[in-house]
Design goal:
The complex is a heterodimer of chains A (about 500) and B (about 500). Chain A is built from 19 helices and 2 strands. In chain A, about 60% of the residues are buried. With about 500 residues, chain A is mainly alpha-helical. Chain A folds into 2 domains: about 220 residues, no CATH class; about 220 residues, no CATH class. In chain B, strands 1-2 form a two-stranded antiparallel ribbon. Classes of the chains: A mainly alpha (about 500), B mainly alpha (about 500). At the A-B interface, helix 5 and helix 6 of A face helix 18, helix 19 and helix 21 of B.
Chain lengths: ~500, ~500
């Protein structure tokens, strides 16, 4: 039997959990370094996966498939392809960096890192599972640690945000459960396996399945987050501790888009086509409304949270464009490539943004944008990194954000001219609020309160630099990443036709 | 009443529980009645022995009796014999054996909980004797095949439960709970026996199998609706289905907590067993013919199911006493299990059986945590649980696992139970019922999470409501005895959530 790489990738953090469990709870450093050890191991394995990954074939690679519960036809089915490979790379990276960003957690360090590792496992499992039941179990496994991580270690309104997040996402999950069972009973032989469901996609036609698609869409839309299911996000992001915000923005939101790409589109292509226009409109609303909301924010983290809503709208627009009846293969390819790439890009960029917010919060203990001023004179390196991250988020050419956005616009323009034009205005709005924020925080006269603020330190730079390098690399040479995804995206495009 | 005639099987139906065979002779029947006989004998031994030996050994000998009873039950299962006992008033089939085993297990854990309860002072030996008699009653109820047998068994269980509820003589709440239970139960049983008499009136027999033959002829009379409603009053009261649930929160709150744990699983299981048997055996022929009346009472069952789920969950949202919260939660769980019953299919029955095994562990475990913690703090209110997660992490983490399992979250076993229920419902394409069940699951998360929130997200109250609370003492932690039982109860929840083939094996053996 071949080396179970994917199983190891998923369960490596869980192996760390009992070790941390038996460490004395005041050995903070040991606990942290144990967690770092396991996530670093996971990261190394991912890099190995990347090198062994073949970009020229369409199907799933590194497949592991064994029977788990035969009477129910549930399999333990893992595999990676172009759509998941980027998230499989991003998840260990962000988890690894996140532990460094959690250095200031001092209460309940043991519990924090145990929950963190369980979360890591859940997220990896979601992106690697090819059996719908397994996917669902891992999806739910991510909910519980998030509830505690936000609720115990978060900001002032943490309990409210945590329970809101939990209830909202559970609502989506039970809808997903019902659709999963509907899939199971309407296939012959009954199956949960996603590739099998994709093969049988021609039987899922008609209004009944459109309703199932909408149910599944709601489950994923809550995670994306798509308007109007986005209201949990600002609270959860603002109140969560820094590293958890990074994980939330960098990975958890992408689970929604991933679900759409992995399950909704391939298994229910006809319903996707019917729903495409609605999805495009929702994407547009996300982009523009999200941007407008962001403009009004005074809390830096809340601002970044709303900007996440805005940027995820690009993913929705790309997916919708690829589903629209009448779209050419090239446009669909471009749009979907853009959507998948935007997942990855936004993960890196939003990660950077939240880390940056964490840096200033650690020093000043507040995030009120108007309360700062002229920080660039005191913390030039920090200001530089922040401008880098802001420009990346704005979509400055040369950085990765531009590539994702331009691909989505290229793909969507032919089929949704009006919607695309309106969405482009979102880019302008993004520039607006980020530049304004930069001006309020970094430029202008130095706020006297902060004339002794320490510069960004090595640990914090260490968390920012890898993400920054990736952003730069993808911006200058996007084919490095697009080559990984393009074959699988092509396949999904043919499925949806 | 029946005598020793040989009854032959009537028409063939699709989903028969009873493997229709001739009733065994009297002596033969006694052979297969041994589990219940053991329980009754043990109860008598405890009552008598206490005069000589003192009450300390009562609990241990009760445990021994339960174990012996369970072993004899297993050996009966091994023989694979099915049929009617004592002239077909009780049946011996796999579903009956399952529920009997379940009831014995529940009592086993209840006795374990009770031995150390309040340092074992208050619970005299009569407690254990009555508990064993209640178990015998539950076993009879699970296998009753006759209207009068059902009534007698139901009353045995109920009366024992009344006494056990009011057992803490000096506690006002306990006596109040007992009184409410008695009054409510008496009215419910009265209505039920009236409905049963109507059924006897139209069919001329009290035996379920025979009723089934005759009731088909009446399947289009409104009388059937009345009968079902009335009989349901009795059974519904036992399982705490809406609108027969009003006794539940008060009784659960007032009873000594080991008895609450017992009531939440044991009599409920027996009540469900008799309900299932009644619907499938006595009423099956009325079901098969679809006419106006059938639609009416099938919808009635469905409405009760939905109401139970919903009202149970909604009322739990505002509770601050943990026992009342769990009482409403068990009402809601009864609603979920009713989902499996009202669809009247084989996979529905399977789902009910699987759910009960898991529910046993979840609910008993949750109550054990309450018992263990109230030994230390002396209180059961939510605000006394604030910050407990940091002071006593072990029981609180286990409580979290039980609560999340009750919600139905993977990777815990509660999810598997819900999964099977939803699976059975979707299989018959009753999508809206599944959606309602799913929505209720989301609602239930809120109040389970409130407990978790209190334990972990709040800080310890500086002014505990009980000044004698030992929580101030940093050395205080849950006793080893309780911890071990907690671990025993939590392991199935964790294991079965991921690998539940053993459950399926048990169920397959039963079908």
């Amino acid at each position: 039997m071949q080396f179970p790489l994917l199983t190891l990738l998923i369960f490596l953090p869980i192996i760390g959990v009992p070790i941390i469990l038996f460490l004395p709870k005041h050995w903070h450093k040991t606990i942290r370094w144990t967690a770092i050890f396991f996530t670093a191991l996971q990261l190394l394995l991912t890099i190995y996966l990347l090198t062994a990954y073949r970009t020229d074939i369409t199907g799933f690679q590194f497949v592991e498939q064994t029977k788990w519960i035969p009477p129910f036809n549930i399999e333990y089915y893992l595999g990676v392809d172009g759509i998941s490979i980027l998230m499989v790379i991003l998840t260990p990276l962000i988890c690894f960096l996140g532990i460094f960003a959690s250095w200031n957690i001092n209460k309940g360090v043991k519990g924090y890192h145990i929950l963190y590792l369980i979360l890591d496992t859940g997220m990896m499992g979601v992106f690697l599972a090819l059996d719908f039941f397994l996917f669902y179990v891992f999806w739910e496994v991510t909910l519980l640690p998030m509830y505690f991580l936000i609720g115990v270690w978060g900001g002032p309104r943490r309990e409210y945000s945590a329970i809101k997040f939990f209830l909202y996402t559970l609502f989506g999950s039970v809808l997903m459960l019902l659709v999963m069972l509907a899939f199971y009973f309407n296939t012959d032989p009954h199956t949960f396996s996603i590739p099998k469901l994709i093969e049988l996609r021609h039987i899922f036609t008609g209004t009944g399945w459109l309703i199932a698609f909408i149910g599944l869409y709601i489950a994923f839309a809550i995670k994306v987050p798509a308007f109007p299911f986005h209201t949990w996000l600002p609270d959860a992001h603002t109140e969560a501790p820094t590293a958890i915000s990074v994980i939330l923005a960098g990975i958890l939101l992408k689970m929604g888009v991933y679900g759409l790409l992995r399950i909704s589109l391939p298994v229910l292509p006809e319903a996707s086509q019917s729903f495409a226009l609605t999805m495009a409109l929702i994407g547009m609303i996300n982009i523009v409304y999200g941007a407008l909301c962001t403009m009004a924010q005074k809390d830096m983290k809340r601002l970044i949270a709303y900007s996440s809503i805005s940027h995820m709208g690009f993913c929705l627009l790309g997916i919708a464009a690829a589903c629209q009846v009448g779209v050419t293969a090239d446009s669909a390819q471009a749009a979907l490539n853009g959507a998948v790439l935007q997942m990855f890009n936004h993960g890196c960029i939003a990660g950077m943004l939240f880390l940056i917010a964490g840096v200033i919060y650690d020093r000043a203990h507040h995030r009120d944008i108007n309360g700062f001023g002229g920080l660039a004179s005191r913390m030039p390196l920090y200001a530089g990194m922040t401008s880098f991250a802001f420009f990346a988020s704005m979509g400055l050419p040369g950085l990765s954000g531009f590539i994702g956005e331009i691909l989505v616009f290229l793909g969507a323009f032919k089929v949704y001219s009006a919607i695309t034009i309106v969405s482009v205005s979102g880019v302008v709005l993004t520039a607006g609020y980020f530049l304004w924020t930069m001006q309020r925080m970094f430029l202008g006269p130095l706020n006297e309160k902060y004339k002794d603020l320490p510069e960004i330190n090595f640990r914090e730079m260490f968390t920012l630099v890898p993400l920054g390098l990736i952003v730069l690399l993808v911006g200058i040479y996007p084919m490095s990443v697009i080559s990984l995804i393009t074959k699988s995206v092509e396949y999904v495009v043919t499925l949806v036709k | 009443m029946t005598d020793f005639k040989i009854y032959t099987c009537g028409s063939n139906h699709g989903y028969r529980i009873l493997n229709c065979e001739a009733s065994m002779g009297l002596l033969n029947s006694v052979r297969y009645f041994i589990p219940e006989l053991v329980l009754i004998a043990e109860a008598l031994i405890i009552l008598i022995a206490v005069m000589f030996k003192g009450k300390r050994l009562a609990g241990m000998s009760a445990l021994m009796g339960l174990v012996v009873s369970f072993i004899t039950l297993l050996s009966i299962k091994q023989t694979g014999v099915t049929g009617g006992l004592f002239g077909n008033i009780i049946t011996l089939d796999s579903v009956a054996i399952f529920f009997k085993g379940l009831c014995i297990t529940v009592t086993f854990f209840t006795v374990l909980f009770s031995i150390k309860f309040r340092s074992g002072e208050i619970l005299s030996s009569e407690y254990y004797a009555i508990l064993l008699l209640a178990t015998a009653g539950m076993c009879l109820l699970a296998s009753a095949n006759d209207l009068l047998m059902a009534y007698i068994a139901l009353e045995t269980v109920s009366i024992s439960a009344y006494i056990l509820t009011a057992f803490l003589k000096s506690n006002r709440k306990s006596s109040e709970a007992g009184l409410k239970y008695v009054i409510y139960g008496a009215i419910a049983s009265g209505i039920m026996i009236y409905g049963m008499s109507l059924l006897y009136g139209i069919t001329g027999t009290t035996n379920f199998v025979d009723i089934n033959k005759f009731v088909g002829a009446y399947s289009d009379t409104p009388l059937l609706v009345v009968i079902i409603l009335m009989v349901l009053a009795g059974f519904g009261y036992k399982i705490a289905a809406v609108p027969f649930h009003m006794w539940c929160p008060d009784v659960y709150e007032g009873a000594p907590t080991p008895i609450t744990a017992f009531l939440s699983v044991g009599p409920k299981a027996a009540g469900f067993a008799i309900l299932i048997r009644f619907l499938w055996e006595a009423f099956y022929s009325a079901l098969v013919t679809i006419n106006q009346i059938t639609v009416i009472w099938q919808s009635l069952l469905m409405i009760i199911c939905v109401l139970t789920m919903t009202i149970g969950n909604l009322c739990a949202l505002k509770q601050t006493n943990l026992k009342r919260l769990l009482a409403y939660s068990s009402i809601a769980h009864c609603g979920y299990i009713l989902m499996g019953v009202v669809i009247l299919t084989k996979s529905g029955l399977e789902a009910v059986l699987i759910y009960f095994i898991i529910y046993l562990f979840m609910n008993l475990g949750a109550f054990l945590v309450i018992i263990a913690i109230s030994e230390i703090t002396g209180r059961e209110d939510l605000k006394d649980y604030h910050g407990l997660g940091w002071l006593m992490p072990f029981p609180c983490v286990i409580m979290t696992i039980f609560l999340l399992s009750l919600t139905g979250l993977p990777p815990f076993a509660g999810f598997i139970g819900k999964l099977y229920l939803f699976k059975a419902v979707i299989e018959v394409k009753w999508y809206w019922l599944a959606v309602l069940g799913a929505l209720n699951t989301v609602i239930s998360l809120y109040y389970y999470a409130r407990v978790i929130k209190a334990m972990f997200l709040e800080s310890v109250d500086t002014e505990p409501s009980n000044p004698q609370s030992a929580i101030r003492n940093p050395q205080s932690s849950v006793s080893l005895y309780y911890s071990i039982i907690l671990v025993i109860l939590v392991i199935p929840i964790l294991v079965l959530g991921v690998y539940w083939i053993p459950l399926l094996v048990i169920i397959q053996k039963l079908s």
